[in-house]
Amino acid sequence: MRRSDRARDRSFAFDVIDRCGHGVAALSTGGEGPYCIPLSLVRVGDDLFFHCALEGRKLDLLRRDPRVCVTFVAADQPAYLPESNMYTTFFQSAVVTGTAFEVTDPGQKTAALRALCEKMTPGHMEGFGEAVRRSLTSTAVWGIHMEEVTGKEKARKR
Asked: Is 120 within 8 Å of 21 (Cβ atoms)?
C-alpha cells in the first residue's frame, strides 16, 4: 500500500466488509482481458460467501483459476476543501485476495444463504425456510477463503 499512513488493521477491514452490501470481484480470464463483477457477499469468519446461478462465465472462470480479489468501499464522500482549494474523497475500503471454492454440502449451503439473507434482509427472515427449500438445488453457493485482507481510510481531520 503506497499510503501507509492510511492503512488500517484487519478488524477495520472486516468492519468495512460487514457494512457493505456488495463487493466487486476481479477474476482472471487467462488473457482474455479483465473481468470484474459486483457480488452480494457475507463474511463468516475468514470466508466470504455469495450465491449465483449454477452456470455462467463467472463460474467458468473460477473453475479455471480460483484466485480472486474483492474490493469493498464504504463511507465514500467526495469533498471540496475551500481552505486549501482542494478536491478529495474521504473513504473507507477493504481489499481481499483469496481462493474461491464451491460449497456443495446442503447444510453448509443453507448456512451460507442464511448468513447472506440475515445480512441483506435482517427484518424479513420469516420466509427463509420455504425459500431455501424451493431453491437450494437450483442455487450455487461459493466461498472465498480470505488469504490477505487490507483496510484503508482517508478521514476528515478533526
From this structure: yes
Spatial separation of the C-alpha atoms in residues 152 and 1, rounded to whole Å:
9
Q: What is the CA radius of gyration of the chain?
A: 18
CB 66 within 8 A of CB 101: yes
Size of the chain in residues: 158
Helix (H, G, I), strand (E, B) or coil at 22: coil
Does domain 4-154 fall under CATH 3.30.450.20? My reply is no
Closest CA to 60 of 28, 33, 31: 28
Angle, helix 106-120 to helix 128-135, in steps of 10 degrees: 130
Q: Could you read off the pLDDT of 68-92 as tens digits, one per residue?
A: 999 999 988 899 999 899 998 899 9
Cα(58)–Cα(64) distance, rounded to whole angstroms?
A: 10
Rounded to whole angstroms, what are the CA distances from 59 to 27, 64, 66, 101, 156?
A: 10, 8, 9, 10, 40
Which cell numbers in the block locate residue 77?
464522500
Model pTM? 0.92
